[in-house]
Amino acid sequence: MIIMKKIFSNKNKILSGGLLIALSTLVSCKKLIEIPLNPPTQITRDQVFADSATTISAVAGVYSYTPGGHGIPYSDGLFISSTSLSGHEVAYTNSYGDNAQFYSYNITPVNDEITSLWTAPYSEIYQINDILAGVTGNNNLSASFVKQITGEMKVVRALCYFNMVNIFGGVPLVTTTDYKVNAQLPRASTAAVYTQILTDLHDAVKALPVTYPSSGHARPNLYTAIALQAKVNLYRSQWQAAYNEADSVINSGLYDLTTTPISDVFLVGSAEGIWQVPIQNLYGGSGDANQFFPYSTDAIPNYIVTDSLLNQFEAGDMRLTNWLGVNVVNGQNVYYPAKYKDLQPTSPATECMLLRFAEMYLIRAEAAAQLGNLEQALTDVNTIRSRAGLASSTVNATSQTAVLAAVRKERRTELCFEFGNRWFDLNRTSADTKYPANGQAPAVLANWQVNYALYPLPQAQLQLNSHLVQNPGYH
């Protein structure tokens, strides 16, 4: 693990020894959030939070990613590959492992990937809760420092719960480090999880400044929290709130759309990076590239882009030529995801894009269309199309259904292979009759059943915690 000079100005190690060992224990332990007391070889919590320097070392671990699950839990490519399969953006061509279950919706509760999707964010949440407990009421730290760190941690926790609630539904709400209590928590309702997410983001908006607290955009600023609020409110059909928040980010003057070239969007220093975390992997590049890239230029990739997605790209769309790779196999073009191209570390480096500016235009566009402001919606859609090298949309500007279809189409081509956007779009709008029926989950996903919208809880967690109840349709 390297020192994150880009994120933190001090040169402490990423994690104090005690927290690193504790986190490793968490990732490997069987029960949810079960953390033993520090053995004598570890430093105490009082030492970890003794001053701003030691505290910031612990905070760095929340943002650092290395293979094995430390830090931001969505940088290893698993979340993206699983949800891309479920959204039929890609198909899985290999016969080993549990990956194919996500495409065919026959996921079992003993699926290894399901276990990782559950445990990785909870390990992050434990670390966040520990930091929040360590800085609260800590007289060794300045009030401004505590305010900053508290705001940052609540944004990260909100992200974790947002992704979990969209793949599992209601999950246990863990907000402390009391593992004896946490290990037996029941599932909270979906509404309760969203309430916690929005509470954390509301607190973060009040705490965070406009400026980023260090170089790069790994540690959230005010607009990181607002951008995530916009996404959450879009998913909750709170159209005016989503519109206002996306509009605030767009008009902040801090971000821009990357145009020269579009392939630079996911590199360090991207103008689009609202929240962009360095990938701290000395040997293997990004998790996304290692998931999606084929092992040779003439091999069939493990994940191939489906015809249904390919057909959404128009002639001249720069996203097709820059964000999809292609192998020629037996004389046929076979496409695979290639937004992240770093099988090995590169210079300039790739960074994991958690939130980016283009999505704010699409959030504002969808919210505007839902609010009846169809001209604004098309203006935002055309901003994204123009960046992709395409002419303005020709849809009927007086038809709400047509405009929403245009927004959906643009979301599909702009946000493909990014944190489940396609999969979640199908699920979150499945009951909204304003969207064209031929673009909804029952029409586009074979043998669709409503239970497919959520993944099963890991069987091991159900056996360890009798208060957990499995999602419908899974046994």
Automatic annotation (TrEMBL):
Sorted alphabetically, which PROSITE patterns does this protein's record hold? PROKAR_LIPOPROTEIN (PS51257)
Superkingdom in the source lineage: Bacteria
Main location, first listed in the record: membrane
What Pfam families has UniProt attached to this entry?
A: SusD-like_3 (PF14322), SusD_RagB (PF07980)
Q: List, for all copies, the residue spans of the domain called SusD-like N-terminal.
A: 97-234
Ranges for domain RagB/SusD come to: 351-474
Going by the UniProt record, its keywords in alphabetical order are: Cell outer membrane, Membrane, Signal
**Localization, UniProt:** Cell outer membrane
Extract the InterPro entries matched here: SusD-like_N, SusD_RagB_dom, TPR-like_helical_dom_sf
Q: Per the similarity annotation, which family is this? A: Belongs to the SusD family.
Name of this protein = RagB/SusD family nutrient uptake outer membrane protein
Q: Which organism is it from?
A: Mucilaginibacter gynuensis
